[in-house]
Amino acid sequence: MNSDNQKNGEIKCSTNEVSDNSKKGIIHNGVLIEDTFAEAFDAWIASILITASKRDLAETAAVSAIGYGTSIIGCGAEAGIADYVIPQMSPDGRPGVTVLLVHPDKKQLKEQVIDRIAECILTAPTTAVFNGLPNAPERIPIKIHYFGDGFEYQTNVRDRNVWAIPIMGGEFLIEEEIGIVKGVAGGNFFVMGNSQMAALTAAQAAVEAILSLDETICSFPGGVVSSGSKVGSLKYKFMKATTNHLFCPTLKDTLPDSLVPEGVRAIYEIVIDGTSYGIVKQAIHDGIHAACSIDGIVKISAGNYGGKLGPHKFYLRDMI
Amino acid sequence: MNSDNQKNGEIKCSTNEVSDNSKKGIIHNGVLIEDTFAEAFDAWIASILITASKRDLAETAAVSAIGYGTSIIGCGAEAGIADYVIPQMSPDGRPGVTVLLVHPDKKQLKEQVIDRIAECILTAPTTAVFNGLPNAPERIPIKIHYFGDGFEYQTNVRDRNVWAIPIMGGEFLIEEEIGIVKGVAGGNFFVMGNSQMAALTAAQAAVEAILSLDETICSFPGGVVSSGSKVGSLKYKFMKATTNHLFCPTLKDTLPDSLVPEGVRAIYEIVIDGTSYGIVKQAIHDGIHAACSIDGIVKISAGNYGGKLGPHKFYLRDMI
Amino acid sequence: MNSDNQKNGEIKCSTNEVSDNSKKGIIHNGVLIEDTFAEAFDAWIASILITASKRDLAETAAVSAIGYGTSIIGCGAEAGIADYVIPQMSPDGRPGVTVLLVHPDKKQLKEQVIDRIAECILTAPTTAVFNGLPNAPERIPIKIHYFGDGFEYQTNVRDRNVWAIPIMGGEFLIEEEIGIVKGVAGGNFFVMGNSQMAALTAAQAAVEAILSLDETICSFPGGVVSSGSKVGSLKYKFMKATTNHLFCPTLKDTLPDSLVPEGVRAIYEIVIDGTSYGIVKQAIHDGIHAACSIDGIVKISAGNYGGKLGPHKFYLRDMI
Amino acid sequence: MNSDNQKNGEIKCSTNEVSDNSKKGIIHNGVLIEDTFAEAFDAWIASILITASKRDLAETAAVSAIGYGTSIIGCGAEAGIADYVIPQMSPDGRPGVTVLLVHPDKKQLKEQVIDRIAECILTAPTTAVFNGLPNAPERIPIKIHYFGDGFEYQTNVRDRNVWAIPIMGGEFLIEEEIGIVKGVAGGNFFVMGNSQMAALTAAQAAVEAILSLDETICSFPGGVVSSGSKVGSLKYKFMKATTNHLFCPTLKDTLPDSLVPEGVRAIYEIVIDGTSYGIVKQAIHDGIHAACSIDGIVKISAGNYGGKLGPHKFYLRDMI
């Protein structure tokens, strides 16, 4: 970073192109923005709007429903909180939290939406469930009303038609269908810092900016990936993915081809799923600018597979 | 509740036996404790101690790892936070959070432990993983060190032998094995209130008391079940479980055999898993006493299947 | 409450006038809205926008700055969080929290603004301070830049001119002046419930709705007053204010003139300060509607001194 | 820091003495522990144990009561949360939070204890107040029961005699006297990092370790001081305290006598008050060890006035 960056409220932006081949890119606010791109792929995204008597109750249900949902490599879906809805703007006048569930396969997404609602939201005190994408042309039926065992009935909450299911805690209201859209998954960038906490705090600041947007999530714990991986393994043929060793700071001195810049002690990755290419691009933009406001950031890069993984590219140079 | 109960700091306990058949039990602090028992079953329990640079970072990993883990009916495991460990007492001098994963089947538990560590803890910033039950005679191997792709190595953290795996965020330290014990799952009780929020707050107070104990979890969202179920269905033969209609307050007036007491507007269930019969009994005891400290609680009951579900019984009369 | 109210997501509103003299008012959603008014008075209000590297850091500073600030009866000022500002909308691109300080006396308000900034915000990590009311015609000078001991200098953050003060943690940026407006203090209403937790949760839900508005605060702990008072004392002449005994539920049976309605076990008061009559009226409106969405609420009333305390009246009948 | 320090779970401690005059001290875990001492002074300390129906309600009251309480330079008292008490261990079986109020003058401390209880705890929902130092030989009378206007009465909560005061929210229970002890205020150390966030996170980790001890507080926002000061001013004779310019990183290049070490970008101070010399010493010890576990920490120092301020000295060399 440059010394301007040290100042708390620094917002002056100096932007210079760097042509040195070893670190090609643009200097923004003292941080090298590498001239590379993030690669992302198509995925189906469902949006569930959970309301409850108080915001913390809606959040408790949401946190349970999105858990164990970091990556479709090992989880049933990628999941995260996309938005908080104030009472004055929610379908039933109560505070709400919107969660997104993401999977490339529509059938698997449907199963996850049903299971996570049934296990984590229906069971959570005072919740109701609304379609978070009421204008989406495509919808998946939830049919959780069979839980009512014949005692359920249809009613209206303002402009929404819902099932009312008698439960021990009162009544559970839920719309029959949840909207889904074809969105973009795997948008990403890397934050490299001169200490572990500079890198981590910058990554967290980026996540805060991203979550200020609607309709995007960062599905990893706290929105940040600590252990970015490469496909396959050099040594263990049975492993589908292993540590991205060229980006491991502790291996820098022993690996001649290490890609860790001088002075970098930690690299955190932000991975973003969103309902459209445009919103994911905005998220990468806002996230990078937030990260660069933190002292100690050396470089921003991004992950791609040379364009083989997915059809969507986000060039970092377009973010400055 | 009786009028004594209205007072904020009320702790006087009046205890009387009630012999009226329709509501047999003991009156404790103005609340009827029904003369029934909770039934619970055997399950394997793994304990994972997550440490991190700060407590909130350990908690972020824990919350992700225990998510989508309310009930083995629909989730891979039951999971929850059992304990917070202060830096001065943790294996590496950093703040820690202990989570329990629970499943009756040892093989499925092992898979869940590995997957949830790999997806939700390895990926979370600054975390390390230790065996939360170092004295357990039985252990499951994790073997996550293959993620290191040959760059991993073994080292010691004080008295623990760990794998050190280079990652982009620094190094991830993990013990090779996680201890498991045969514990008790499904300990429970019902909290019935004269308003939804009286019942809910009492249930939450109970959960706080239970979580003050080590080695017990309440796996449902916020520790509370809002939609207790019965096995099967009266009407929909394809449903494995449906709403426990006899305990639904909104159905009281239409169902002659309703079990909802007069004046009760909501019933919340607390479900407890723990590493031993004794700790679950203590949890039920402490939880009931905490619930009865809240104004507006009418009755405490518990769920059982006449002794057919599991070998463990917890009589509520023993809790007073 | 009526039985409709029991249902979680209940939003149907039935509104009937009640002419019975003993409980004159309107029935809204099963709750009696008494035909009375809240009385409020004029006060000066300063708005301080605190930004920081992360939202929690801004909030930490804010919480310290607003503490010990419930009522001007015994505190230097009334104070609270009015708004959260996303990075994309804040003066320096970092997350922010806006706090209001309130006092009828302009000079005392000025002292409080300076002292609380100096003690609680300047000392808090990574903070900067901006004028939260940039369009206010009246401003108070802060002059905290003298803390820089001559090493301070003036600079610009986007469109704001600030002092940059070197500190041990980096630099502290602050605008020289904070805008103040003549606002309204003491807007209020009472929430009466059939259990302590019904009343408290409804009060909390009301506070959440009120805080969703900008430029209003609820200065009491968590926004709720547990011990509403009357002026003076029946018994202790040296006391300026004592418990509002006619509204104490535990005294209902012993006081013939008790104003506690039948079945009410707790009454919580919400007190609102805001930058204008209109915003306080909106806050009372939104708060009452939120409170009435909670099961177990019996009645809503409000506090006034027959119009002697202040020039502003808020009729509850206008809120439905 | 040394490279060992980069590793997440690093706990190996290398300790070497450094005799170079310019940076005399001990190297601990790659961090220079300067050979200096912290200086502290005597102060009276009151301990208030707040209980409530749920832990968050007790914390809400506590946070309000300790606010605007960073330093006696500009606040009525120094104040902070010292401990959380589980229901099973609290005087009334409900969760509790203990706060300490600190002032060198006993009379001023008494006023602050009364005012902060009256304004911030009595007004907070469901709270009760107990003497947090039941064995202290000296006590201050609170006499808040006059608020009850004659309707108050004395009763017992288990082994504590309390006043029960009828309030609108139910009853407020409070012991008549709060214990005070002569403790130690101003214990401190400095954390210097190679980035703002390394220094800040290390300071926060230190605070977490310190708060794990009972009977100590860190009264500044989040426990951390961002703007350490010197007595008086070089330039502005009317200023009692100004920025500690020799420790300001942004002034390092312009001040020949700067005390900022090479590569340091931020310095945060931890200030500790506690009920005894021993507990403050333990807090400094545990805090320094926690801070040194964070990557990017360059040096630990401490503040003193050559022994002129107070009678208590804490040598950093004794902490390793």
Describe the structure.
Four copies of one chain form a homotetramer. Chain A contains four helices and 19 strands. The longest helix of chain A is centred in the middle third of the chain and has 16 residues, at 106-121. In chain A, the strands form two sheets. Chain A has a 17-stranded mixed beta sheet that branches. Chain A has helices at residues 55-66, 106-121, 196-211, 277-291; strands at residues 15-18, 25-28, 31-34, 37-51, 78-85, 96-103, 128-131, 138-141, 153-157, 160-167, 170-174, 177-193, 216-217, 224-225, 229-231, 241-243, 266-274, 297-301, 312-315. With 320 residues, the first copy, chain A, is an alpha+beta fold. Chains A and B meet through helix 1, helix 2, strand 10, strand 11 and helix 3 of A and helix 1, helix 2, strand 10, strand 11 and helix 3 of B.
Short recap of the structure:
Chain A has helices spanning 55-66, 106-121, 196-211, 277-291, and strands spanning 15-18, 25-28, 31-34, 37-51, 78-85, 96-103, 128-131, 138-141, 153-157, 160-167, 170-174, 177-193, 216-217, 224-225, 229-231, 241-243, 266-274, 297-301, 312-315.
